[in-house]
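Collaborator request, handled under Task 6.
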Amino acid sequence: MNFLAHLLLAGDDEGLRLGAMLGDFVSGREALGKYDAAIQKGIILHRHIDAHTDAMQGVAELRSLFQPPFRRYAGIIIDLALDHVLALRWDEYSENSLQEFDQGVRDMLARHDGRLPERLKKFMKYADQRGLFAAYQEESEILHSLRGLGRRLSRDNPLHRTGEIWSGFKPMLADRFESIFEEIQSDVADWLKSNSTNTGS
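Structure tokens returned to the collaborator:
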């Protein structure tokens, strides 16, 4: 799962939603301890979603469709592609428009600017320039993001060439998206019930 899915799965709770954004920028127990309980819960939920998604049979089946040299990077491609399909089907999952949701995320981050790590602030500057997260509806934006990720990886990789396989991969993902996302939604609901201590937001 990538940013858009994590934010939607966090629901309306601001602590969970802020944790959903912080999840990719905070690592280790010591860093986690810098945040209050509500945000910690959101970060832990983010990590749980990532682990559950990686272990899902439906996602494993998608990874198996990739051939070398893309197979090693299939998880990265799938994460962004899931956000793309979610953005295209947004009205099925949210009562607010994607543009309204996008602005709500920015408003939330502005309220908590003092506690955001510099890496997240840098990412949001990039997001503002690219029109994310609403721009995830555009295939060209997903491919641009993958090229950028590829440049940041230390080893040579084929992410800048994802366009070569995109037209064959996207329909297979679109066919499986609903079942994959419904399973993740169900798992998140169960997780929240099991971790229902009221921490505030």
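The cover message to the collaborator said: "Residues 3-194 form one domain. The chain is about 70% helix and 0% strand. Please let us know whether this matches your experimental observations."
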